Amino acid sequence: MSLAVERVTPQPVPPGARQHMVRMRDGVLLATDVYGTGTGASTGAGTEPAPTVLVRLPYDKNSRYVFFEKIAARFTARGYVMVVQDVRGKFRSQGETLGWTGEVDDGYDTIEWVTRQPWSNGIVGMFGDSYYGFTQWSAVVGQHPALRAIVPRVTCTHNGPGVASYDTGSGRQPLWLEGADYQAHVWIDNDGYEFTADLTKRPLIDAYEEAFAAIGKRSAGFDLVVAGIPLPPYNGPHPYDARPVPVLHCVGWFDNLGIAHMRDYTELARRPGWAAVQYLVADTIDHENYFLENAPVSPGADHLADEAALDAMLDTYTGPALEFFDVFLKGAAGPDSLPRVRWKLGHADWRTSTAWPPPEASALDLFLTRPAAATGPVPGGLLAAAPASEPEAVEWRYDPDDLVPSATADTFMVLRNHPDERSTADRDDVLVFTGPARDTPLDLAGPVHAVLHVESTAPTFDVFVRLLDLAPDGTARLIVRGCAQADAAGEREIALGHTGYRLRPGHRLALMIAGSDFPNHLPNSGSHENPWLTVAPKASLQKLRTGSVHPSRLRLTVLPDTSTGGDPR
């Protein structure tokens, strides 16, 4: 039976927008919708020239998935013109289909076109999620003088077409199969393609060769991933080295790009020019804007299916950007009117701070002890305040024929189902270490790292780490996660991301360590063979060392516990 493939074509331009084909410097025309100029149903921006908010995306500017008809209504009602464009090679736009290339010049040329329109007052901001956060950073590289502010959401500066993982600062990463799969669905030609690859095939590349044969075309971006060939995403300086513009980072604590996005924030905080103009809003959301407080999501709260839920979500989605643009595009208030950091403490409340992490936060190390019990079911080993004085070790296996399952096949919407990971934590091929049940809340507020002393019988191996909230009813749900790939024994510091999260009384921390995470990540070949091409990946044994000489530990950033005089332990 042949693979079923559904082609996704452009949706109609809504009546409130007028589409233009905007010419780039090489003659390619990009499909561009304009809302709020008095030429369509949306006239909130009036007839006087107004500031423009530009969005450049690859997901069909007119699809319900990106909901820009509804978003534009909110922006035009506030007095902005909104311009939404299909990037080069996608949907109604002309040109070659290859993501993470060409966006610097196309962004500059589009901004230049905007400033020449009679409805433009010459001031432009940019807004949007994920890839359309990347197009904002590309426009920053272009350094058009009309670009005055950006609002990148759940995104990062580092992705590129030949990269199947995102930069976390933890060194080499396991190959992100979910990211490669995205390339195969989105970046083939102007349209999108829905299919379910048969990931049981070996070599694994055959699952995608079957799809490309059924479609009759290939994804150049996917082929670069398989070949391990990165292309430079910017034909100019890196955004860090470009002229600073005011930036509002909108981060999700459960976003699968959250580690990389917060790396951008922390790197820019070290650069005085950028530090002076960057702001942070961090919410308890995932990449698709599901909220922790609604997880797992009921049908009535699912904005991908329910219109009322979508309207409620969009108020939160657009509110910070509108407030930010009112300051930096309109001058309606001074920059001091905006808090530098606004963040949500999961299971608690919204807070503000002068910096991130909050100045009152401090590091707390919990050491991995009693490793002999870690391969047993929960509670496993112990997270303790001090390491054992004597050296200890425990082995766990990597079996490519019995891979550790990912919590969810789609980490872009991890909170939609917010799965219970207890059954995975109880497996005998993962390690788990738990802390004692809390008498008082433990508030996490900042970066989380796992510092592990690991080795393997294989020449290359992967380490996947998940920090879970173990509830009194025995369920275990994600707080943060991270991974690294190694080719030698030694200490590995693995970034698990930043978070704002309250571990409530009666709950325990559980740290889970595994050698695979499938299908989110490509199984390691266990050799130097390309894992895409291997027919028989090799099993291996991994070893974790603990004790005072090899102090494997979980490093948290926590707020003072006011009920205990400030000691959070």
Keywords:
569 residues, alpha/beta, ten-stranded mixed sheet, eleven-stranded mixed sheet, 29% strand, globular, 19% helix
Structure commentary:
By secondary structure, the protein is an alpha/beta fold. Helix content is about 20%, strand content about 30%. The chain has helices spanning about 70-75, 105-115, 130-140, 175-185, 205-215, 220-225, 260-270, 270-275, 305-330, 415, 420-425, and strands at about 5-10, 15-25, 30-35, 50-55, 80-85, 120-130, 145-155, 190-195, 245-250, 280-285, 340-345, 350-355, 360-370, 380-385, 390-400, 430-435, 440-455, 460-470, 475-485, 490-505, 510-515, 540-545, 555-560. Strands 13, 14, 15, 16, 17, 18, 19, 20, 21, 22 and 23 form an 11-stranded mixed sheet that branches. Helix 9 (about 305-330) links the parallel strand 10 and strand 11 (about 340-345). Helix 1 (about 70-75) packs across helix 9 (about 305-330) and helix 4 packs antiparallel against helix 6 (about 220-225). The longest helix is centred in the middle third of the chain and has 22 residues, at about 305-330. Mean pLDDT is about 95; it is low at about 40-45.
The total beta strand count reads 23
Indicate the mean pLDDT: 94
N-to-C CA distance: 58 Å
Helix content: 10-25%
Main sheet record: 11 strands, mixed
* Helix run count: 11
How would you classify the helix and strand content by structural class? alpha/beta
Overall 3D geometry?
A: globular
Low-confidence stretches: 39-45
How large, in whole angstroms, is the Cα Rg?
24 Å
Strand content: 25-35%
